[in-house]
Design a protein that fits this description.
- The chain is built from three helices and ten strands, in the order βαβββββααββββ.
- It is an alpha+beta fold.
- The protein has two domains: about 120 residues, no CATH class; about 55 residues, no CATH class.
- The strands form two sheets. Strands 1-6-5-4-3-2 form a six-stranded antiparallel beta sheet. It has a four-stranded antiparallel beta sheet with strand order 9-8-7-10, with no helix packed on it.
Length: about 190
């Protein structure tokens, strides 16, 4: 399925509330309820969706939606999403543990592989400590940036007014860099002394 864009969230305040509503409904043959959801980095929505049918056992599966939210979009299309389920083997694998823990067992190959990738990503994040100002990250491979620069060693620079906005300063040179999906990189931490 493709992307669905809209100019308003209607009666909902957030993309997460809108998507929770989309997966919560009741029909003659099925009752669907979002048990828990999360919007990771305002890019990916994850939900544990319970489905109850009169002729089948209770099932809880993961819904995964790619999200684009820009309240200042020039064309007025402020919100878009692309929905899928774990059974489609989504590339996004940063589902929170609290959602994964609610899912019922499955034998669908794609879903099993997706759950495994999510658990591995959680373990990798847990193994690395929360970054602190002044620490130096020494990367196994050079990190390449959009301006063409490559750096193996970067110093953590956290703005105290925006603690979740972690930036990195090169040891030699100027400027600040952002690194998306830092957990995917292999590096060691050298705390400041």
């Amino acid at each position: 399925m493709g992307w669905l864009y809209m100019q308003s969230l209607g009666r909902f305040d957030t993309p997460r509330a809108y998507l929770d509503d989309q997966f919560t409904y009741e029909k003659e043959t099925v009752r669907s309820t979002v048990l828990r959801s999360g919007l990771v980095r305002m890019r990916t929505y994850y939900a544990a969706v319970e489905q109850i049918r009169p002729d089948r056992p209770r099932k809880v599966f993961a819904a995964v939606c790619l999200v684009r939210y820009n309240p200042r979009d020039a064309e007025g299309y402020i919100f878009g999403y692309k929905d899928q389920t774990e059974h489609m083997g989504p590339n996004e694998a940063e589902c929170p543990a609290a959602i994964l823990d609610l899912l019922t067992p499955t034998d669908t190959e794609y879903a099993v592989a997706w759950r495994k990738r999510c658990r591995e990503a959680l373990a990798a994040r847990a193994a690395k400590p929360r970054l602190r100002n002044g620490w130096t990250l020494a990367f196994d491979e050079p990190v390449r940036f959009a301006d063409g620069a490559e750096h193996r060693r970067l110093q953590v620079a956290i703005d105290p007014h925006r603690p979740r906005a972690v930036r990195f300063r090169p040891e030699q040179g100027h400027g600040l860099y952002r690194i998306g999906r830092l957990a995917a990189y292999r590096y060691t931490i050298e705390p400041n002394t």
